[in-house]
From TrEMBL:
Transmembrane segments: none
Top-level taxon: Bacteria
Major enzyme class: lyase
Residues reported in the UniProt entry to bind substrate: 276, 312, 316, 343, 371
Orn/DAP/Arg decarboxylase 2 N-terminal domain boundaries: 35-279
Signal peptide as annotated in the record: none
Modified residues (N6-(pyridoxal phosphate)lysine): 60
Binding site residues for pyridoxal 5'-phosphate: 239, 273-276, 371
PROSITE patterns: ODR_DC_2_2
GO biological process: lysine biosynthetic process via diaminopimelate
Source organism: Hyalangium minutum
Cofactor: pyridoxal 5'-phosphate
Record has Nucleotide-binding as a keyword: no
Record-given protein name: Diaminopimelate decarboxylase
């Protein structure tokens, strides 16, 4: 469900025709729909209804301040993976007391800043990290609230680059070590065990792996409670997939049913860490066609979006639909849509049947709201795109296009 649709042959974001934004702001530009962002958040909230839960939006999916502000105003918390993300959450008006901190490589400095900010809990991913957190807690004279992120060894059945719950993955502590670590933590004066956590991967399109992982972790939660650990939170991570092409991920309702069934009788407040499902289909990336190029082997369409602006196709072999901003009749031809970056992997779409566009024609790269701008870089010294938030018939720039001066800020020749 999103608010990007054609009116009289022109693609709109809510009530705003996309050419108007391209004219005013240029391309490439990320365009988000506020109504879609809000609706996605509400759908997840409503799916869990009265069951005690907290939605901690996963900041890395899209960490733009205006997006964070919107979820903070909707009552959401946040899932962060760095001190930088904590700073963003605070800058956007998010509540650290509703924020959880994951990641295998938190530095002592990041731990200290998060603890001072009054974070809800640290999702700890190794025995040595737990000892470090204890040391930081003791140094500050506080008990750091923590959950262990356990690795349930479940195949999430997603792309190998975004599966995180296998035995061979760097994430989480082995399931079998968890009980021992919670027991040891009782003697550690800088720690306080408040929850249990898992996250098995991203772009999950099937319920079975989620059910398997959560059932396993819920069982561990119950036995830890029986052993007297005063846990309150069961954090089930994020990962719910979206439709990029023809995937049929579980709806938020189905997802909630699976989660609630698998975690019943724990008495825990559930923490959810959705990222992609909230923002993915709420954003498009506007691009302009620069050149068409025919070689004996192929037809190429060169656009002004590069892998530095949207790295998902190059990094994950990801598929993004391409929609002409103004519909045009004609017979589709098979083309490779490529960006300007000097890398062979800078291909937005391979062997894609589209009506051969004119030079200057606008395209919308669909489903670009998640892991788009947050992964953008300045590789090839390309300033990063602008971002726009549409709200009904109104729109505003929420991040200005980077300038070339921004590119060398802090440098000394
Ligand atoms: C990335 C991540 C998420 C969000 O994943 P999505 O697939 O975007 O929902 C949640 N929790 C953790 C720990 C993550 O690393």
């Amino acid at each position: 469900m999103n608010h990007f649709s054609y009116h009289r042959g022109t693609l709109h974001a809510e009530e705003v025709p996309l050419p108007a934004i391209a004219e005013a702001v240029g391309t490439p530009t990320y365009v988000y729909s506020k109504a879609t962002l809000t609706r996605h958040f509400q759908m997840v909230t409503e799916a869990f209804g009265k069951h005690p839960h907290l939605i901690c939006y996963s900041v890395k999916a899209n960490s733009t301040l205006a997006v964070l502000r919107l979820f903070a105003e909707a009552g959401g918390g946040f899932d962060i993976v760095s001190g930088g993300e904590l700073a963003r959450v605070r800058q956007a008006g998010g509540d650290p007391a509703k924020t959880v901190f994951a990641g295998v490589g938190k530095t002592p400095d990041e731990m200290e800043r998060a603890l001072n900010a009054g974070l809800l809990m640290f999702n700890v991913e190794s025995a040595e990290e737990l000892e470090m957190l204890d040391a930081v807690g003791r140094r500050l004279g506080r008990r750091a609230p923590f959950a262990l992120r356990v690795n349930p060894d479940v195949d999430a059945r997603t792309h190998r680059h975004i599966a995180t719950g296998l035995k061979t993955s760097k994430f989480g502590v082995p399931f079998e070590e968890a009980v021992d670590l919670y027991t040891r933590s009782r003697k550690m004066k800088g720690l306080s065990a408040v929850g249990l956590d898992c996250h098995i991967g991203s772009q999950l399109t099937r319920s079975a792996p989620m059910k398997a992982a959560i059932s396993k972790v819920a069982g561990l939660y119950r036995s830890l409670k029986e052993q007297g650990h005063p846990l309150a939170y069961l954090d089930i991570g994020g990962g719910l997939g979206i439709t990029y092409r023809d995937e049929t991920p579980p709806s938020p309702q189905e997802y909630a049913r699976t989660v609630l069934e698998a975690s019943k009788d724990t008495g825990a407040t559930l923490i959810l860490e959705p990222g992609r499902v909230l923002v993915g289909n709420a954003g498009v990336l506007l691009t302009r066609v620069l050149y068409r190029k025919r070689t004996p082997a192929k037809t190429f369409v060169v656009v002004d979006v590069g892998m530095n602006d949207l790295i998902r196709p190059a990094l994950y072999e990801a598929h993004h639909e391409l929609q002409p901003v103004v519909k045009r009749r004609g017979k589709p031809v098979q083309v490779d849509v490529v960006g300007p970056v000097c890398e062979s992997t800078d291909v937005l779409a391979r062997a894609r049947p589209i009506v051969l566009p004119q030079q200057g024609e606008l395209y919308a790269v669909m489903s670009a709201g998640a892991y788009g701008m947050s992964m953008a870089s300045t590789y090839n010294s390309r300033p990063r795109p602008a971002e726009v938030l549409v709200d009904g018939a109104a729109w505003r720039v929420i991040r200005e296009r980077e300038t070339v001066e921004d590119l060398w800020r802090g440098e000394r020749a």
